[in-house]
TrEMBL record:
GO terms for biological process, alphabetical: methylation
Taxonomic superkingdom: Eukaryota
Disordered: annotated segments: 208-239, 1273-1299
Source organism phylogeny: Eukaryota, Sar, Alveolata, Dinophyceae, Suessiales
Keyword Methyltransferase: yes
Residues spanning the membrane: none
Protein name listed in UniProt: Methyltransferase-like protein 24
GO molecular function: methyltransferase activity
Keyword Transmembrane helix recorded: no
Low complexity composition-biased segments: 210-224
Keywords assigned by UniProt, alphabetized: Methyltransferase, Transferase
Species per Swiss-Prot/TrEMBL record: Cladocopium goreaui
């Protein structure tokens, strides 16, 4: 793309050439036909992109984040800077025009519209505008530069809007600069208003100096009070004279909201000066900056400052937290010692939640020491008592005088189990409708609670103002703790705290909560009240809604055990229990069985991608328990030389770790000389050091050293490194002439083989169109591979003589990248049929959602601070040598019309054996690293070329670098620019949050699904079948983690299975209804799922049955604990989909039994909205050996009618209740009670316990909608099936949209 631009405009300098990231962004917008007007500070040149930096931020949970600021520049401050930025923008769009010639809105685009646009903005119509003087001359107005830039941005936005309406970009740019209405609204009027206000108020914050006049300095959160201190204290019922004339403003001069923090009354005795240090407001407020800390401390030393602190990281057991503790205590002490005050705010410590006690600053001894040292008080509040829309329990610590009935003066109290006992009452006294869970539209529900409510701001401001009223000279200074505002004299802060604390008891049999008389209200917060019950053995159970953050479950007082079993899901990628025939677990020399992971009802052994015998499948303390002393010593010696090298090359492992995961490190910190010395030391540990130093040609690994090392550990695959005739050192075979090997200790046996596409055999195939139009780029890529020894060119005739009938020249495809290069794709399936002849004996196993959730859970369970890293291994498949006799199967051409043929000499993506051999080699290297670490704590996973590691504890950063160095010592090439991680990361398309113990998909991928459905809706659901299949595949990927989606994929798969890929048409109503439901759920739900174990209700909770007879169906069930029961009839008028025209219903027994389960869930109160996941076992009765519903709860989906529709309705209800359902078939003779109910024999049941429920009481809206569209759906399916005649055209599987 840029070459085409340079051909017209000459070579581009770094300051005017767009950065690769920015080109990529514009390419995505162009492909989606959704161009945007980027802010000027986000238009990045190559020069600007090279000056990235690390920036620390604080998220909503109080955790510190270190992020890159690479894609953000500064706003242009001069006309010349603006011209340079717009040059970058111009060349970006010209590059898009040269690349995407089919985009009509880019037709005819040249540099001229951009040049005219810039001249308009900077010329005499905008920035250089002139006004006539009284003498008749012209005077330059020089409007405010900020107004000019805002107007410029609005013009470009309007231009892009017009592009979306059908205009070309050139026409849009030319038209917006002629739009008089735009100029009037966004330039002329703001300039006039600015001029009229310039004399009315200052632009900047103004500060009183010591002489009583304004200094004019900007004082951009400390509040400093200045008072004369000559007045006398008044009674509490009268306003202090020193506060006379003091007004509290709501907004700053630049129109930002500022609740009560700005004193606008210039004539008062007190002036408030605000200094704000907030990383969320400005990157200049980076608390890792020493100069900033100098400014803060010097400010505090001035004296008489009020400091308000919040958002401090509270990660449990984190060694770095000591820095936060010291910071919070240190600056508070400094303020107090300088005749100042502090307010420290943080959420209340609510004790044990989900069997864990989350970290809180109120647990830090350094914070609690402030109470006696500074004569401070500590109290808790419900923010709803100050006008908030939710309770939001909050705690404050201050050395200001506090006397307010809404403040509960006591440290947090807990019972012996760690559950919260006060001082906050369990009822706040209000009824709340707002929830902090999920989204409302596109806005998170937590957004309104991010800021203090106005009454709380006023409360804090009053504390400050009354204390400030006592500042100044003379005798008043000794009494600066504030004046009384209550009807009785307040206790000193520390005494008040001690007095209140004495009223809270820790008795397990009674709960005494400190509560003022005005709290005695009868109303209750919806979902915010905590009910505290005690048990006879001294335990307690606290039940509360998660709105308040209090959700504790303990004890066994309700008749069932909460076992904490976690539902897991099978991934469709790797389904293996951890043991397979031929696998000897004892030979792994570990203790016990591998880690067990669960997801969506399935449990299996942990899969790390390094093979069944990999030591990192076990918990660290179980690894290597039965290893020999020689093995343990070799691992220890190897670990020591690695640690020594890390210590020599990396001075600060913590700092470099953050630089690594934020993209600041572009190449290995371990230089060639350091690696050479390290490998020499490694070789000296082995039996043949000379051979260990040899690196075989054609690949990067030190295979001989690795073979010797793994030989000591008797690794089952070590012989494949060097000893085999077709080894990794000499070149492996691709599996055409002989089957791929069987390795029972590494892989389970492959018992199913996918049928490949039927294709007409042709040994010499032509390239796909995408490759033909990129022939030049393909050849350039092949030349690069040749330089690395992975490919070589030849002639067709020469190769025919060399390989004979083994010669295969495959079709090539090419995927264009934003930087103008291409990614080659080798099709070894169609025409050449190489993949048809390759036979696997081993099944490749890779980590999936179960493992990703398992690693997060294992890391979280340590209670230590976590740090993760995701890495990319460069050209993984290309790192495996192929034996020369098989090169003939791996040929291709850059240009189909050329007789030059390129020969692959290494593993080739598109050849089915390439991932197998790479998985085998990667497993050897990964196990080597696992052996080295022995029982030290770390976890690792690999999925093809994506590597992920998790580290905890005080040594996590050092271990991370030792881990990376171990891979590099063997020869693993990393793409350092692709390292990412920290407290969260992405791994194979999944988003991982270690800090929140959540996994899911990234917002970008989730939004892609939402946008696809919305775009289909805007096109009235007329979509190409190929696009629909792509969407469905990605939806299926998401359903691996967001499991409520699975049942709703059934009608989508049913439709996709019968339509031709070349079809373009309107989707059936059934599919449309399903898509609309999925859209609503995706918009209202988060894309993340908790990895914590859900409550599991073991044993049958209730039993159901259905009787299908002529003319009616009886649905019935009873609850085992309470013996509540229900029974009602269904008729053909109510549920015609369960009956034939003759009135017979026996054929629908499976569907009726599932419907009975759905009715029981509603009748017995299980279908209530919740945030905490639960797992439920239910028994149903089968009149025959039909176990379809039991299987259905495992597969989660079916295309059989009407079972599909009922299952979708049931899934919708379960997802809202966070309920996972396991149906268990039970023979009729063992379920006689339910059988009696369906036969309407009620003599054994108490009539008073009957639940009155009918068909009309059930929410079956989804079911009814699907029933109404079923006939049309089946008709369209049949038509599509007949149109495609069962044949699918040869797929262009390489042409996919970005995700």
């Amino acid at each position: 793309m840029l070459r085409a631009v340079e051909a017209l405009h000459g070579a581009l300098g770094d300051s005017e050439c767009p950065a690769a990231d920015y080109l990529s962004l514009k390419a995505e917008e162009t492909e989606a036909n959704e161009p945007t007007a980027s802010p000027l500070d986000e238009i990045i040149s190559k020069l600007a992109s090279a000056s990235s930096s690390i920036q620390s931020t604080v998220d909503g949970t109080g955790h510190i984040r270190v992020t890159r600021t690479k894609t953000k520049s500064k706003m242009p401050s001069t006309t010349e800077e603006y011209r340079k930025v717009m040059k970058v923008e111009m060349f970006s769009w010209l590059a898009m025009a040269s690349r995407y010639k089919s985009k009509h809105w880019l037709h005819g685009l040249t540099a001229d519209p951009f040049l005219k646009f810039v001249e308009y903005v900077l010329g005499d119509r905008v920035y250089g505008i002139q006004i006539p003087t009284s003498e008749g001359a012209q005077q330059k107005l020089r409007p405010d530069w900020a107004i000019v830039l805002a107007y410029e941005q609005k013009l470009r936005k309007e231009a892009m809007r017009r592009v979306m309406e059908g205009h070309t970009l050139a026409d849009a740019l030319n038209s917006v600069i002629k739009d008089a209405d735009l100029k009037e609204a966004y330039f002329t009027t703001p300039v006039a208003l600015k001029a009229s206000l310039s004399d009315a108020q200052p632009n900047k914050w103004q500060r009183f100096n010591s002489k009583g006049s304004f200094s004019g300095k900007s004082s951009p959160s400390f509040a400093k009070g200045k008072g004369k201190g000559k007045g006398k204290s008044k009674s509490s019922n009268q306003a202090d004279s020193r506060l006379k004339g003091l007004n509290l403003a709501w907004r700053t001069p630049d129109n930002r909201e500022l609740c009560f923090a700005w004193q606008a009354e210039a004539s008062g005795n007190i002036k408030l000066i605000l200094k704000e240090f907030d990383i969320e407001r400005s990157p200049d407020h980076d608390l890792t900056n020493v100069a900033l800390w100098t400014e803060i401390l010097e400010t505090l030393d001035e004296g008489s400052w009020f400091i308000i602190q919040g958002k401090i990281s509270t990660a449990p057991s984190r060694p770095e937290t000591s820095a936060n503790e010291g910071m919070a205590q240190g600056i508070s002490m400094r303020a107090a010692n300088s005749n100042g005050f502090f307010i420290l705010e943080h959420p209340e410590d609510l004790g044990v939640v989900d069997d864990e006690h989350p970290g809180s600053i109120w647990q830090w001894p350094e914070i609690l020491e402030l109470i006696p040292k500074c004569n401070a008080c500590c109290f808790a509040i419900h923010q709803c008592r100050f006008g908030a829309i939710t309770p939001k329990p909050t705690r404050l610590l201050t050395n200001l005088q506090v006397s307010d009935s809404r403040c509960h003066m006591s440290l947090p109290k807990f019972d012996r189990s760690g559950f919260y006992k006060g001082p906050l009452p369990r009822k706040c006294g209000h009824r709340h409708s707002h929830t902090l869970i999920g989204k409302t539209g596109a806005r998170w529900n937590t957004s309104p609670s991010a800021a203090y409510p106005p009454q709380m701001c006023q409360f804090l401001a009053n504390l400050i103002l009354h204390a400030a009223a006592s500042f100044g000279g003379g005798k008043e200074k000794s009494n600066h703790r504030g004046t009384k505002r209550g009807s009785t004299a307040p206790l000193p802060a520390a005494k008040a705290l001690k007095s209140q604390a004495g009223q809270v008891h820790n008795s397990p049999h009674e709960v005494h909560l400190v509560q003022d008389s005005d709290e005695e209200e009868t109303t209750q917060c919806d979902g915010a009240a905590a009910t505290v019950e005690t048990t006879g053995d001294g335990g307690s159970t606290v039940q509360a809604d998660t709105t308040t953050g209090i959700s504790h479950v303990s004890g066994d007082s309700s008749g069932f055990a909460i076992t904490g079993q976690f539902d897991d899901t099978t991934t469709g990628i790797s389904q293996v229990s951890g043991e397979s025939p031929g696998f000897d677990m004892r030979a792994c020399l570990n203790a016990g069985a591998p880690i067990q992971v669960e997801w969506d009802g399935a449990t299996r052994g942990f899969i790390d991608g390094f093979g069944l015998c990999s030591p990192t499948r076990w918990k660290p303390r179980q690894r290597g328990v039965h290893r020999t002393p020689a093995m343990i010593q070799l691992a220890a010696d190897t670990f020591d030389i690695l640690a020594e090298c890390v210590d020599e090359c990396i001075a600060d492992v913590r700092k470099e770790s953050f630089r690594l995961v934020t993209g600041k490190i572009q190449q290995s910190p371990f230089g060639e000389e350091a690696l050479r010395k390290l490998r020499e030391k490694w070789a000296n540990l082995l039996r043949d050091p000379a051979e260990a130093k040899v690196a075989d040609s054609g690949q990067p690994f030190y295979l001989r050293a690795l073979a010797q090392w793994l030989g000591v550990y008797e690794d089952p695959d070590a012989h494949w490194l060097v000893d085999e005739s077709d080894s990794f050192a000499s070149g492996v075979y691709i599996g055409v002439d002989q089957p791929l090997p069987r390795s029972p200790q590494v892989f389970p046996e492959k018992d199913k083989h996918r049928k490949l596409d039927d294709t007409e055999f042709s040994p010499i195939a032509d390239n796909y169109p995408s490759a033909q139009i990129s022939a030049v780029e393909l050849e350039k890529k092949f030349r690069e591979e040749e330089a690395l020894g992975r490919m070589h060119p030849s002639k067709l005739g020469v190769l025919k003589q060399e390989f004979g009938d083994k010669l295969r020249v495959a079709s090539m495809a090419a995927i264009s990248k934003p930087d103008g290069s291409v990614r080659p794709l080798h099709d070894a399936t169609h025409s050449v049929m190489v993949n048809h002849e390759i036979r696997y004996q081993d099944k490749i196993i890779c980590p999936g959602p179960s493992e990703i959730a398992g690693v997060v859970r294992e890391s979280t369970d340590t209670g230590e601070a976590r740090f993760c890293v995701s890495a990319d291994i460069k050209a993984a498949h290309k790192l495996v040598k192929v034996r020369p006799s098989d090169w003939g199967y791996l040929c291709c051409r850059a240009d189909s019309s050329s007789d030059v043929v390129w020969v692959n000499r290494t593993g080739t993506s598109g050849v089915s054996s390439a991932p197998y051999w790479w998985s085998k080699l990667a497993g050897l290297i990964g196990r080597f690293v696992g052996y080295i670490f022995h029982d030290r704590w770390f976890m690792q996973m690999i999925y093809v070329d994506d590597l992920h590691g998790s580290f905890v504890g005080t040594n996590k950063f050092r271990f991370l670098w030792i881990w990376i160095l171990a891979y590099e010592m063997v020869g693993t090439p990393f793409g350092y620019h692709k390292f990412k991680g920290g407290f969260s990361s992405e791994f194979v398309g999944f988003h991982i949050r270690y800090d929140l113990a959540e996994v899911g998909i990234s917002k970008r991928r989730g939004d892609w699904l939402v946008d696809w459905i919305m775009k289909a809706a805007s096109n009235r659901y007329v979509v190409p079948s190929r696009d629909f299949v792509e969407f469905l595949g990605r939806l299926g990927f998401v359903a691996q983690l967001i499991t409520w989606l699975k049942p709703h994929l059934s009608p989508l798969f049913a439709w996709a299975s019968v339509t031709s890929r070349s079809t373009v048409g309107k989707l059936p109503e059934t599919v449309i209804l399903t898509l609309q439901y999925i859209l609503r759920e995706l918009q209202s739900e988060t894309y993340m799922v908790s990895t914590r174990r859900p409550d599991s209700f073991e044993g049958d909770q209730f039993r159901t049955d259905a009787k299908c007879a002529d003319g009616y169906i009886v649905l019935a069930g009873w609850e085992l604990g309470s013996r509540r029961w229900f029974s009602f009839r269904l008729t053909p008028d109510e549920a015609p989909f369960l009956f034939k025209e003759s009135g017979q219903s026996q054929w629908s027994s499976t569907s009726s039994e599932l419907l009975a389960t759905f009715a029981a869930l509603g009748a017995f109160g299980w279908l209530t909205a919740d945030r905490h996941r639960k797992s439920l076992t239910i028994a149903f009765c089968g009149g025959t050996d039909n176990k379809a519903n039991e299987s259905l709860t495992i597969k989660r989906a079916t295309t059989k009618w009407p079972l599909m529709a009922i299952n979708m309705q049931l899934s919708s209800a379960l997802s809202k209740s966070r309920l996972s359902l396991r149906l268990k078939w039970r023979p009729r003779e063992e379920n006689t009670e339910a059988d009696d109910l369906t036969n309407e024999r009620f003599s054994d049941f108490d009539p008073s316990k009957r639940v009155d429920i009918t068909w009309k009481d059930l929410d079956v809206s989804i079911l009814q909608a699907l029933v109404q569209t079923r006939e049309e759906f089946e008709k369209k399916k049949q038509e599509a099936k007949e149109a495609s005649d069962g044949r699918q055209p040869r797929g262009k599987k390489f042409d996919k949209s970005p995700w």
